[in-house]
Amino acid sequence: MGAPAARGGGGHAGPAGDYTGWRRAALAKSAAGQQHVGFARHPAAPMPPAPALAPDAPLFVVLNRGSGRGSADEARQAIEAACRAAGRPLTLRTIDRAHRVPELAREAVASALAQGGIAVAAGGDGTINAVAHAALRAGCAFGVLPQGTFNYFSRVHGIPAPIEESLQSLLTGTPQPVQAGEVNDRAFLVNASLGLYARMLEEREDFKARFGRRRWVAFGAALATLLKGFRTWTLTVSAGGGTQVLRTPTLFVGNNALQFEQVGVEEGQAVEEGGALAAIALEPLGRLAMIGLVLRAAMGRLGNASKVRSFAFREIEVQAAAGAPQRRRVRVATDGEVQWMDMPLRFRVSPRPLWLVKPLDAKAERA
């Protein structure tokens, strides 16, 4: 496993603590084997071939009617009109119940593979994650029509949010390899987390149901969760033969350079270069101090806070430290969707690329 590279402003590194050594090792590891923008293959692994598309590649779209941007009926009409004008066959599956999302994603990917087409997610992070997970495992071409609140994945890959523009990007693009993260073999495109951040995402959905899918609602939901209080986890983080002990209310692992840039954490640069993920762990602190960190993140200054540890890595294993409460299963959020996972948690850069369909000249959005 690639050794993590850690940084942070003060505080104690833990019983095994040599953060400086971690950082040097990880920077060397993440630079090795880089060949493609967005995906750096492992030095020992060959680049798999891109999926072959039919001349008029059909689209197999999974549409989430409940996503936050615009009307689902308007999105459906725009998709149908664009495919009709381009002479592209279309199969559109609408999500009617949340528990069917993985099933619909697998159906779309199987059909796309069989017919030389593209499996497309039209929705927010959860819908995009479900289709991407199935496409990643199958080596299928994958497209995105972003309909969410923040749309970090599409923005970092230069895919516009307006439905007409994202359709044009999809219909004129080609499959290009981009990086995905994995936790216990579950794919994530933006982030994965346990502890407080995962709980904040879970409780945020209740706020969105009551007040709508707006950014200020997400911020207010985060503050409400913090005011309820939170526990501190004692974790061991292992990589490359070394181990660090972290006491933290939350462990956040990201695969999106734009999100790190917006909160002011430098390790996002390693994600942008390819071949690495980046993690944030907060040191134990009280409710008011935690609210202060949330405000710093909103201002893009989280990386300068003394209670924040961050490190880049290719692969780590996380479990409860000796003497800490031992949990066989924990709740983990992947791209906003919370699920139970068995410990230990193994976070890594996926050894397979995700074949994202986008124009060759697509430019990433900057913070």
Features:
367 residues, alpha+beta, Tumour Suppressor Smad4, Rossmann fold, seven-stranded antiparallel β-sheet, six-stranded mixed β-sheet
Structure description:
The protein is α+β, with helices and mostly antiparallel strands. The protein folds into two domains: 5-35 and 191-349, Sandwich (Tumour Suppressor Smad4); 59-178, 3-Layer(aba) Sandwich (Rossmann fold). It has eleven helices and 19 strands. The strands form three sheets. It has a seven-stranded antiparallel sheet, with helices on both faces. Strands 3-2-4-5-19-6 form a six-stranded mixed sheet, sandwiched between helices. The chain starts with a strand and ends in a 9-residue tail after the last strand. Mean pLDDT is 83; it is low at 9-37.
